[in-house]
Each structure stands twice: as structure tokens, then as C-alpha cells.
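Q: I have 648 residues here and want to know how they pack in 3D. Can you give me a structure?
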Amino acid sequence: MLMKLTSLFLLIFLSNAGVWAQEDDIRSAQVPASKDAVIYQDDQVYQTTLGNGRGQFLTTGSFEIGIYRRALIAFSFDGIVPPGSTILSAEFVVTPNAVSSSVGMLIYRVGSRWGPGTSTPENELAGGPAETGDPTWFNRIYTANDPSRNQTWEQPGGDFVFDQPLVADAGNIQDTTVHYTSEQLVADVQSMLSRPDQHFGWILLGDEGNFATGVYQFPSADNEDEAVRPYLDITYRVPRDVEKVITNYDILDTLAGNGEKDDRDNHWRTRFEGGDAKEAELSQPATAVADRNGVVYIPDTYAHSIRRVTTDGKIETIAGTGVPGDNGDSGNALEMQLRHPNGLAVLDNGDVYVLDTSNKRVCKVTPEGGFTTVFRDDTEPALRTGYGLWVAPDASSIVYSSHNVLKRWTASDGAITIMASGFDELANITKDAFSGDFLVADIDDSTVWRVPEEGGSRERIAGGGTNSLPNRDALKTRFEGVRGIAATGHGGYFLTTESGGDLWYVDTGGIADIILRGAGSLDIVKGDGQVLSDLYQNSPGNVMSQPYSITIAPNGDLLMMTNEAGVLRIIHKGRSPEIVRAGIFEEDTFSMAWTSQLQRLYLVEFSDNLLDWNLLTEVVSSGNVTTFSSTIDEETPQQHFRVSLYYP
């Protein structure tokens, strides 16, 4: 039987709102059995060892009075159903060719792993001598020449709970096929998909309720007629990109700022230096950016300084005197004056770049504490306001927001050019690694724009709508006071709305959804210790106020500067995977295992040059260690593999 896939996209039109919402991506598939076998009670009655691992038929029921046959069957969703999907319906479908029992089948979940057998008996009703690898009445995996290596069932006839069948009826007859389903079976198929390493398939029983002879026989997964092989007929909902992203995050927490003062005075005090970052009073900082070591940098705007939060939660000053001014272009960073620093960027070498807005310049602070003015901007339109700052990895160019235009400075000639104009008031910017473009937020116009790397044009990609309902086309949604923006690297991006108070995610299909709810005023700091997926699904109410910015740390953590008083919130990314083992463990199979967290989505990529990586598959973890295998052959070029959590 050829696997069949269909797809149905449900679009709901909301006449009262005037917008449409893309709802669920519902698909159907026929999933063939990956292995099956028959076990024979003759082994218990006549002390035989019979098997049928690759026969043409599966048989259940009683062949002789009180001597039963049972069938084992398993399914694999690899390459058919995307990881993380939700099973909506499921039917087990067979094409009977011999029925002499009064009841159809009882279907149970089998409790132990069993072998993919190899035997093909001439008389399948009677069975034949078991071969190595076959399951038998007593053995999960039989070893023909070495009984000491047999892996036995915990109970003869297979491991299952007799009074807990998934199905116990004659099924639904449709032409030549019989369909079996129940709520319990649908839930069990979901378990097959979600936790495949802990699901070992089903054991099928026939008419064992009386001693009358009765058999139920149907073609197996190895039947020469592909059209009559057994299969699962399922419908399922494909997980949305936003669900994949959220799945890999842990808890919301507060990293810095006590949120007590929300005016524009300098609230920094000597006692905060080197102390607990959560006890410090910040002065309306505009953003926060992390380096690759997990250290977070904050432009403390109205305290005219740059702070650093260390990995042990301490806060310290690395630049600025706390007194607004401009006392030169180089020197000790702690002795140099700043005036309203807003934007900030950190390079891998530890250099911190600062958009020193009111001084109309970009500065650099080195890890050693040195300070340098990189350039000043006296060009029109003047650098009056600005929050967004991006620095090329080699510092060859710097892109920044300057009131209502996006500008670029080039190191080679010191030239400052306008990349795009026509905005009302630019806020933060981000470089989208997926497209190579810049994404910019226009806070006054409540819109988001795409600007190509070379500049010269702009395209609106979000905002412009009249309402802020979630799960809508981003172009028909209003993002009230959108200020923060961060690209995930695969086509999606996060937004924060200062006036609306929310954290949004715009997925790869352009659908915007609210991840965290907040308020455009008040001083709300709630939700600490709660998992992001719970906050998203249960919508417990506002957990923050006025999110100014959103940035993505190198390890995937989300950093949000919130509240006018300056409270830095963090959403922790799940633990990065660590390779446990990798190599060719069988002649034609590469296998890799990594540490994992339950129900996390991982990307497995491959490359033949360590430069260009291609997605091979997505894998949902079902335990502390997750494994992946790939078939290779002599013609397969040398390949490298890597694994990571789903984006960002």
C-alpha cells in the first residue's frame, strides 16, 4: 500500500473584524505497518518454538481448540507525520481473507520491545521453526543457536494488560476492509507519535473468549499485494511554527531591576555596584543584549552609563560616569561621559558598541575597559533619537536607526548613507540571518518593515491593521507602539509593543500571535517561574508592562527590557544538547545520541563541508537521551551531522 497524504488548510473569515485567520493545518495519511509477526501458543502446549516474522498473513484466534495465535504489529511515522503533530482521528484498517471467529479483534498496547522477525513458514496457520530475531510465545527476541541470549516476555504470549484493551469489537466493515477505532486507540496512536522510543506497537488477539475454533486472518505488512496490507488511517494537526518555537523554552524570570522608579532621573546608587542585579534601580534602559558567555549588557539610558549583569546575577558599571556629557573620544570607559545611550551591540570578541544618542555618535567599549568613539553623525536628518544598532561581525559596517531614517556607516571610507527613509520614528532593528535583510520597527506608525541589506527600498511586513487580535495575518494586525524586534534565523521574528504591552511572534507564514500578554502602563512583574508554554496556552493575564525591547541571546534566551522603571525579564531556552555518542555502529547506519529534555524539538542537520548546513529532519525528544539514525552507503559522500534545539 502506497502511503497517501492529503492536506486541508482551514481559513476562517471573520466578517466583524474584517480579517481572516489561518487556523489549523489538518492533514490525513495512511501509515503502513513497519513490522509485524505471529506468535503461536503451540510452544506452550507442545514445547515447540514456532515463528512467523515475514509471512504473508497475520493470524489471531484459535487454530485448534484452546490453542491460540496472536499477532504483533508496529508503525513508524518517520517521514510521514511531522514531529509534534496532534492526532485527531485514527483507525486500524485490515483486509480480512479468513474469518471464522464470532468476534473480530482485541487490540492491546504491547509492553516490551520485540524483534522484527525473518521466518517465513510454508503453513502460516500452523507456523514454522523460529529463526533468530523472531518473537515467539515465550520470547520477545529469539536466538536460534544460543538460548542464553533469548530475550523473554514477562508473561508467555506477550506483555500486555488483559483487562485494558484499546479496542474490543468486531470493527466497522467497509466493503472489503474492516476499520477499528476508539478514543483509547486514538490516544495510543498519539503516544506512538509523541514517544516512539517508549511505544512498542500492539498485540492483536482473536476469539479467545471461548474454546470454539475461530481464526481471524488478514494480509501482513510483507504481503505481496501492497493494496491489502494493514495500515493506520489518521488525521492530524500539524504544529504551527509558533508552537515549535515555544516548546523549547523554559521559565520566565526577572534578571535585573527592581522596578521602583519610573521617572527620568538617575536612580543609580553606589550601593548597587557589584550587588544583586534584581535589587538595582535602573533608569529607563532601552534594551539589553547578551554575549556568548551569558553576560548581559544594559544601556542605562537616564543614568548615562552602561551596566553589565554577570552570570552570577551581579550588576556592575563598565562605561559612563553617571553625569551626562561628552568629554572626549577615547580613554578609560569608566571616566568617559555618555548622554542617553540607547542602542547596544556586542561582538564575539567582547567589544561593546553603544549608540550614544544625544551625543550623536557610536562608541566602542573593549573588554579591557578602553573607550573609543567609532564615528559621529552630524549628517541630516540629525541623530536626535534612535534605539536600534547593528554591528557587522568584523565591525566593517554599522547600521542604526536615526529618528525617521535607517543609516549605515562603513569603516572603509567612514561614509554615512541612508539605507531607507519615510518612517515616522524608528525603534529597534534586527538582522534576519534567513533572508539577509534588516527588519525595523516604526514605533509611531505601529508597523514593521523589511529593508534589503544593500538598502534603497523598504517593504511593510507587519502592522497597518485596525485591531490587535492574536493569530492573524501580521499585515492586518495593529501592533500598538511596536518597539522591539528580533529575528529567529528561520524566517520568524519576535515583536514587543510598548503601548500594547505584549510579546508577539510572527511565524514563517506571516501569522502573528501573542506569546505573552502585558499592559501599556502600570508596573506589572508577574509570571516568574512559570513555563512559557503554560503562559501561552493558559493566558493567565498580564505578566509585564511596556516591553521596550526583545533580543535573542547567543544561547537562545529571550531578553526583554520592560516597565518604564526598567525591569529586565528573561525567558530561558531549554538546555543545549550534548552528544553522547556518534558513529557507524552497523555496516550501513550512522547513529547519533544526545542529551535532551522531554518533548523538545531538535533539528538534525548535515553538511559535507562544515560550511553549508542542510536540514535533515526534526526530532521530538521523549526522554533524557534522544537518538537518530541515518542509512548510508558507499556512494554517500562524507558527511558531518549536528543537532540543535529548534529556532531561534
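Q: Anything worth noting?
A: The longest strand covers residues 19-40. Confidence is low (pLDDT under 50) at residues 1-21.
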